[in-house]
Amino acid sequence: MSEPKASRAWSDSQWNAILTRGPKIRSVRRLFRLAPSSPRCGMCLAPFSGLGGRAFRLIGFAPSRKNPRYCGECFEKAPHGGAEVDAGILFADIRGFTSFSESRPGEEVVRLLNRFYRMATDVLAGHGAIIDKLVGDEVMAIFVPGLAGPSYVEHMIEASQELVRGAGYGAGLEPWLPLGIGLDRGTAYVGNVGAEAVKDFTAIGDVVNTASRLQAEAGAGEIVMSERVHAM
User: Fold this and answer.
1) How far is the C-alpha of 175 from the C-alpha of 169, rounded, in Å?
2) How sure is the predictor about 3, in pLDDT bands with cuts at 50, 70 and 90?
């Protein structure tokens, strides 16, 4: 969602267009395409590897924590603001994490969390999600058509199924992670919220709260979705 730094203010309509139809920054993309090499940011085409990638990292175009397929300029450093758009919200949580962590050495807990984070990041990034939170025992992800495509709800469902399989369910083995997932879709305010130093790209709205409540009802290895998701 990056843009030339000469202009750092977007209107609600611009945010809406980006979140629903994707970024339109052709001049920047043409310029960045000339710099070697792939892989690149999926929005602005800034290179991530080679000499070009190292040079671009120095000026802020490193992979974003929101989705490593995009750069920080397109998320963390995007202007304030946002828009109300249709979005899918996914929450995934480790069931019984408090008792689990209290009964095991800290190093073992850290190894499990790191494995969980890597798996979740790979799965969610592969489906075009925005990783809102990846902290403690919980993951929250946002799916909007401008990034995940018109089939963003289907991508959310597929991602949830991959997360459950990645945790070891349905593989004929003992699951290594007691993961429960909640899904909902609806209108949310999506964009950069907060003060300059602490702004965060996130989603706000009832759909977020509903997805969180559905996740709380999910047992280990279960995906609980709203009727609005099931009807898609």
Assistant:
1) 5
2) very low
